[in-house]
Write a structure and sequence with these properties.
This protein has 2 domains: 40 residues; 148 residues, Sandwich (lipopolysaccharide transport protein A fold). The protein is 24% helix and 43% strand. Strands 1, 2, 3, 4, 5, 6, 7, 8, 9, 10, 11, 12, 13 and 14 form a 14-stranded mixed sheet that branches. The N and C termini lie far apart (129 Å).
Length: 235
């Protein structure tokens, strides 16, 4: 009697445990398959990581034993894997140029900068400010400096300020010293002699080229409206 009861209980236990074992086995098998589906090739460091990353850079550069330049930046990345190869200054950059007496002659600053060493091309973006040895100040949001062609250019709004004049335009092109420059689609204020060439007592200013926009011609309806407004104001 006791043996028969054990057999009955064993069959009942088997019927209860078998579905549970099957569920656990299926869950483990499915988990293994999902893990295998999501495997991918390994990512190597040299695929994207910079060759050099420097933080808190504040260095002086000498030429023929004389200190001439200073570079200040929060972060300096040098990457030779990406094409084209480049230096990246994501946290901004500031350059200074000194004379023989260690006085500042010129400076360049920008919020972000890229230097493509193979093309010798600088790309400055965000609050670009430049001051040259002649006191000219350049301001824009973007500027390219081509070291192969020895020129600077920008296709966005630019402002050029000198001791004699102030010019603004949507296109800028200049030599590296910013002594001869072109400002297209420009507007600004300057001496009358700069336009007529009648000033005989002063030296001519550095050469520049400007293209002034004429005032737009008003439509007849607008002209009549302005004439009516002036007539009423005089009464």
């Amino acid at each position: 009697m006791t043996e028969r009861c054990w057999i009955v209980n064993s069959r009942k236990w088997y019927r209860m445990v078998l579905p549970l074992l099957f569920t656990i086995h299926y869950s483990l098998f499915t988990a293994c398959e999902e893990a295998q589906e999501h495997t991918a090739a390994a990512i190597y460091d040299r695929d994207s990581v910079s060759m050099m990353v420097s933080y808190g850079v504040n260095t002086l550069i000498s030429d023929s034993g004389i200190i001439k330049y200073k570079i200040v930046t929060e972060r300096w990345d040098v990457n030779v894997i990406k094409q084209p190869t480049r230096w990246t200054f994501e946290k901004g950059v500031f350059f200074e140029q000194f004379d023989q007496n260690f006085h500042v002659e010129a400076y360049v600053q920008a919020d972000t900068a890229w230097y493509y060493d193979q093309q010798k091309l600088w790309h400055l973006r965000g609050r670009v400010r430049i001051r040259n040895v002649n006191g000219l100040v350049y301001q824009s949001e973007e500027l390219y400096w081509d070291g192969l062609r020895h020129e600077l250019y920008s296709n966005v709004f630019s402002k050029v300020t000198t001791p004699e004049r102030t010019l603004q335009g949507t296109y800028f092109r200049s030599d590296e010293q910013m002594r001869h420059y072109t400002v297209s689609n420009s507007k600004g204020s300057f001496m009358t002699e700069d336009m007529t060439g009648e000033n005989k007592n002063q030296e001519s200013a550095p050469g520049d080229t400007t293209q002034q926009q004429s005032e737009p011609i008003l439509r007849p309806q607008i002209q009549q409206k302005h004439a009516k407004t002036i007539q009423e104001s005089t009464q």
